[in-house]
Specification:
With about 375 residues, the protein is α/β, with parallel strands linked by helices. About 35% of the residues lie in helices and about 20% in strands. The protein has 2 domains: about 10-170, Rossmann fold; about 175-380, Rossmann fold (3-Layer(aba) Sandwich), CATH 3.40.50. An 8-stranded mixed β-sheet has the order 10-9-6-11-14-15-17-18, with helices on both faces. The relative contact order is 0.09.
Length: about 375
């Protein structure tokens, strides 16, 4: 949001910095802001049309559309008048209406003459906004418009970007996470494979939630499901391809939710097998043990294994002990509403010391959220 103060010229540079940081930026301007800068500047920098009027816009409902679209709203510069409107929930033009219509976190960068900044009304409004959870950056001290000096100068755009990053940082910010997902396919011939029933839903939910919480996520998946836009996706098919991809990735936490084949055809046919040739004898050989090679790394990450079981949890407990994983998520895949392809899952969490937590049947996204809570706690976050 750009409002009507002299520092509006700095909002153009702020937009440029945000674009360079990889953000998508949309600008709305108050009517008064047009006295200081033109919408063409912002449209050219951001590549998006600028919203300048609540009732004359290409959007049917600009304030709610923008408010729902945004992950964060920055008001820079924030005039005394706009701060007053925001503090009182007034919404008579596009900027203040958007601020009232959004549930995204809001950051304001006030800019005004010292007298306006120090006025009790402005102070009161700022207190209200901070109580409402608004982040305030600046103002700084220095040269003001008209040759004046003092407090009231808008924070520098670099400072605003840094404050935005801090405001949006999640509990997993800075954590490098690798997630595997989906079932592998092991070629019998160019058209047939040995596969399994894994849908990849659980692993994708784990990757998406980690990204949402601020982690740097790489997802090695066999499915073509979409992923959170911040997730770096590597698509693979076989256990070998998954092992090769995993080997190249350095990470702090590895969550192995993929259902990896234990065996593959030792000698897949180069040409399609023919029915007329009769039933083939397919010799199998073991696939690479991805979990064990991650566990054997010199500087090994925190490792979460998955165990799909059909005969109760005892085998999963045994597997957790044998593999030495930090956590093991066990699920009974034959239970109604749990395991492969469902949107819900009932899992048990096996800790390294053998302790077991039984979680209720919940959405896979909730399983992912609970899992990251446990991991974050264990990692001291
Ligand atoms: C030359 C000039 C500069 C101004 N600079 C500021 C300013 O830096 N900060 C501020 O709060 N108001 C400033 N104002 C007053 C605002 O433009 C005025 O309060 C306006 O109604 C703000 O509207 P808006 O918040 O809807 O953009 C300035 C006015 C003029 C004429």
């Amino acid at each position: 949001m750009v409002t009507g103060g002299v520092a509006a010229y700095k909002a153009a540079y702020l937009s440029r910095l945000l674009i360079e940081a990889g953000e998508e930026v949309r600008v709305a301007m108050t009517v008064e802001a047009h006295n200081f800068i033109g919408p063409t500047t912002f449209a050219s920098i951001t590549g998006n049309p600028v919203v300048t009027d609540l009732f004359e816009s290409d959007l049917t409902s600009p304030h709610t559309d923008l408010g729902r679209w945004a992950d964060a709203v920055i008001v820079a510069p924030a005039t005394a008048a706009t701060l007053a409107r925001l503090a009182h929930g007034l919404s008579e033009e596009v900027a203040s209406a958007t601020l009232l219509a959004t549930q995204a976190p809001v950051l304001v960068a006030p800019a005004m003459h010292t007298e306006m900044w120090e006025h009790p009304a402005t102070k009161r409004n700022l207190e209200v906004l901070q109580r409402d959870g608004v982040t305030v950056v600046g103002p700084g001290e220095g040269a003001l418009a008209g040759g004046d000096q003092g407090i009231g100068r808008m924070a520098e755009p670099e400072e605003i970007v840094a404050a935005l990053e801090k405001m949006l940082a999640g509990p997993l910010t800075g954590l490098r996470v690798l997630v595997t997902a989906g079932g592998t396919r092991e070629a019998i011939d160019p058209v047939r494979f040995i596969g399994n029933r894994s849908s990849g839903k659980m692993g994708h939910a784990i990757a998406d939630v980690a990204a949402h919480l601020g982690a740097e996520v790489t997802l090695v998946t066999t499915t073509d499901r979409p992923a959170h836009r911040q997730v770096d996706v590597i698509r693979v098919e076989s256990a070998q391809e998954m092992a090769d991809a995993v080997e190249k990735i350095e990470s702090d936490v590895v969550v192995m939710a993929a259902a990896v084949a234990d065996f593959r055809p030792a000698d897949p046919a180069i040409k399609k097998l023919r029915r007329t040739d009769g039933p083939p004898q397919i010799e199998l050989e073991p696939t690479p043990d991805i979990l064990s090679s991650v566990m054997a790394r010199e500087n090994r990450p925190f490792v979460v294994g998955f165990a799909a079981e059909t005969e109760g949890i005892d085998r999963a407990i045994e597997k957790a002990k044998r593999k030495g994983t930090d956590l093991t998520v066990a699920n009974e895949v034959t239970e109604a509403g749990a395991g492969f392809a469902h949107d819900t899952n009932r899992v048990s969490l096996i800790h390294a010391d053998g302790g077991v937590e039984h979680w209720p049947l919940v959405a896979k996204v909730e399983v992912a959220e609970r899992l990251w809570n446990v991991i974050a706690e264990k990692r001291g976050r």
